[in-house]
Amino acid sequence: MKIFTVVSLSLIALTFLSCNTNDNDDLSNLTSKNTQSKSGMTSKVKMVDWQDGEEKVIIVGPNKQSCVGAYPMECLQIKENQEDNWTNFYDGIMGFDYEPGYEYVIKVRPEADPYRPSDAGFFMYTLVEVISKTEI
């Protein structure tokens, strides 16, 4: 009878301990930095402080580059500041009609999407505004 009581109490304690909520699981405060640490994988977008719902201004280059994500593809080239190096952007931007030969300054809004496939980035990106479009 003692063994049954000890095992039962252990299982009950384990159940309560596993129900601990973690404030870091809140999707409204995700950044690419903590998304990386949660998944254990390197973020495809090497930009700091992408936050769910926070609009961001980025520069889109005049040419796409060959890149390999889940499969070989053509990636937009983006950067946050003029002096930065171009970075592959593996995801699409909803509402953005890219034309080669133009450099864009655009405002986008990342939105966390926990239901996206595992081979896609954690955020969906939506075009908010085309600030400028310059022929190169």
Can you lay out the helices and strands and say which pair or pack?
Blueprint lengths: L1 H17 L13 H8 L16 E5 L4 E4 L3 E8 L7 E3 L3 E2 L7 E11 L10 E13 L1
Parallel strand pairs: 5-7
Antiparallel strand pairs: 1-3, 1-6, 2-3, 3-4, 6-7
Keywords: Signal
Protein name: DUF4377 domain-containing protein
Organism: Chryseobacterium nematophagum
Commentary on this structure:
It is a single chain. This protein is elongated. The chain has helices at 2-18, 32-39, and strands at residues 56-60, 65-68, 72-79, 87-89, 93-94, 102-112, 123-135. By secondary structure, the protein is of the alpha+beta class. Residues 20-48 have low confidence and may be disordered. It contains two helices and seven strands; from the N terminus they run ααβββββββ. The chain has one domain. The chain is 18% helix and 34% strand. It comes from Chryseobacterium nematophagum. This is DUF4377 domain-containing protein. Residues 1-21 form the signal peptide.
